[in-house]
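Customer escalation, tier 2.

The customer says the design service returned an amino acid string that "doesn't look like it belongs to this structure." They asked us to rerun it and document both sides in this ticket. The original structure tokens are below, unchanged.
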């Protein structure tokens, strides 16, 4: 079981996204994702997102909110509990990321960039300012087969 974090950092109606194109054998290869990564020993979700954001972007979050947890179940990968954050305050300057290309993407363009099918579900919940939620996504390969929001099947 893996614990990870993911953060969508907003500035001027755009979100900082990471196009995963630099690592071979990357489960997220060629997809666009938010900022984040795996927990290190003894880290809380907040510790992890602050560290991962700094490492991947050079930015220090100054205003962020823990929004939900996404449980990824797959026939190919280990189960992952992803702690989801949004942020609208930060300091620092963007740096080169060794995991992919960072780009500010408008809210309207988020729908059209390549990403995991289930990401559309939780991005919509984030945009609608839904209170803290639990979302379970079950994949077969890269195909979303089931989505359960707060215990209720939605797909």
């Amino acid at each position: 079981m893996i614990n990870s974090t993911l953060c969508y950092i907003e500035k001027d109606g755009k979100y900082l996204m990471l196009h995963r194109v630099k690592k071979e054998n990357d489960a997220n290869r060629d997809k666009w994702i938010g900022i984040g990564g795996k927990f290190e020993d003894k880290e809380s979700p907040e510790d992890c997102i602050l560290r991962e954001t700094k490492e991947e972007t050079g930015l220090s979050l100054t205003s962020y909110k823990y929004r939900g947890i996404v449980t990824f179940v797959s026939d190919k990968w280990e189960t992952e509990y992803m702690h989801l954050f949004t942020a609208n305050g930060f300091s620092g300057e963007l740096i080169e990321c060794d995991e992919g290309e960072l780009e500010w993407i408008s809210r309207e363009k988020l729908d059209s960039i390549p990403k995991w099918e289930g990401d559309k579900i939780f991005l919509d919940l984030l945009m609608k300012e839904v209170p803290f939620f639990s979302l379970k996504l079950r994949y077969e390969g890269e195909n979303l087969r089931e989505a359960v929001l707060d215990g209720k099947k939605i797909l």
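Tier 2 assessment: The sequence is consistent with the input. DSSP finds three helices and ten strands in the chain. The helical segments are 45-57, 107-110, 117-127. Sent an explanation to the customer and offered a walkthrough call.
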